[in-house]
Amino acid sequence: MNKESAVQQKVQVRPPVVVVLGHVDHGKSSLLEAIREDFKITSKESGGITQHMGAYVVEYQGKSITFLDTPGHEAFSAMRARGANVADIAVLVVAADEGVKLQTKEAIEQAKKAGLPLIVALNKIDKLEANPERVKQELGQEEIFVESFGGKVPCIETSATTKKGISELLEMILLMADLEHKNIDPDKAGEGVVIESSMDSRRGPLATLLVQNGSVRAGDVIATKSAVGKVRTLQDFQGASVSSGLPAMPVLIVGFEACPQVGETFQVFESEEVARAQLVVSPLGRPVQAIAIPQGAKTLDLVLKVDMAGSLEVLSHALLSLPQENVFVRLVDAGVGVIGDKDVRLAQGTHARIIGFRTQVDPTAGDLAQREGIVIETFDVIYDLIQRVRTWMEQEIVQELVTVEIGALSVLAVFLTEKNRQIIGGKVTDGEVRKKSQMKIFRGEAELGTGKIINLQKDKKDTEVAVRGEECGILYEGSVKIQQGDILKFSIQELQNKVL
């Protein structure tokens, strides 16, 4: 056998990596549950929502397919974009009873930018409200033309409940994968993408890798631009120990010296010296403040601890993007792992509160926090955590009743004078006059008194407001007798926020 034939025998076709995209609650995770039901995998998330990128492998017709399940909520845009960048094929899940939504459009754009071939899964087709033809028309408005409408995009009607269309969807994925034909060499040094990382109290840094070419084995020296290590153990997506990670295979590895950043590429190197030479100082965490905090402004200081790097990215961005007009969120520190003594000491020194997402509180740290009066709260659902921070921000604000000047009027004529009432005519010289607003009466520089507007007219018709340059008639009530040439100044009272 010549050298060229040997190389050809070594090169194989990589199983397809499929990213599942779509709007929240359109059934992406339910569809994946239906697909992998035979594996008896329990993957229920807190609140019934996918909050981490999960990777799953299924076998169909003797061939492997790797699925990436990406979160659907708007806070996870970055994670969805990352999923689109590591996949070969995108399945766009659209609920047949709801149609194209904002996140559907976002997913379409991500797939287009990544250059991914698309398959539409028209899900929840079993519902009475399902209207597949309308949804196809809506997709056409986004330049996704399905085959039944004369386009080239396959569209499969599916139901996670009845299992309708599941086989057809898998067959279409394999057919499209054959057309894409991604060649790989399993004997090469492994390379791919970090799709999640976390800190385990017993095993240290953990990383979920998606192998794209070559193989990763126990004992290999592995590195990204932010972390290096030596692979000690590997597990497949079901938690079973494996000797190697092959192309299109997600593997959880133990051996990094620090948590690599999500989305980084990794590579197997021949030695630690070579691996360390390509390291770039790019530490995990330290989110960038979304808004510059003005000098002396009120801040809500937080120490944020989360379970995984993907969560850190999403949560830090979400918290720093909250509306911050009166109170600003400041992350004193943010990281992955258990809430420990160091976090409590930091919170004590900065008067911060500690907030955790799907992580534990070290018992010693918990006792210390209780003694020192440090607030620690942990959450399993991201929306609950964000809402709690909103509540804390609102608690820093009180409302007070203030008087706001809105306009002025020059009196041109007095038409009627009774005991406590007058009808006057005038021209608005500044701002506006509103019906039922309060007013002050000035003659020259002297303030004579106050009164209120009972009625306001323009062109002899009742009106709610008269603006600068307009003439109007006012039915006024008060003790001061208004004269031609007087100046009336108008104001209202309204609630305004005051920072404590």
Written overview of the protein:
The chain is an alpha+beta fold and 500 residues long. The chain folds into four domains: 12-183, P-loop containing nucleotide triphosphate hydrolases (Rossmann fold), CATH 3.40.50; 191-277, Elongation Factor Tu (Ef-tu), domain 3 (Beta Barrel), CATH 2.40.30; 298-395, 3-Layer(aba) Sandwich (Rossmann fold), CATH 3.40.50; 400-499, Elongation Factor Tu (Ef-tu), domain 3 (Beta Barrel). 23% of the residues lie in helices and 39% in strands. It has helices spanning 3-10, 28-35, 77-86, 102-114, 132-141, 166-180, 272-277, 309-320, 341-350, 363-372, 382-395; strands spanning 12-13, 17-22, 54-60, 63-69, 89-95, 118-123, 155-157, 183-184, 191-200, 204-213, 216-217, 221-223, 228-235, 244-245, 250-256, 265-269, 298-306, 327-336, 353-357, 376-379, 397-417, 421-434, 438-443, 446-458, 461-462, 465-467, 471-477, 487-499. The strands form six sheets. Strands 3-4-2-5-6-7 form a six-stranded mixed beta sheet, with helices on both faces. Strands 9-10-15-13-12-16 form a six-stranded antiparallel beta barrel. Strand 19, helix 10 (363-372) and strand 20 (376-379) form a beta-alpha-beta unit. The longest helix has 15 residues, at 166-180.
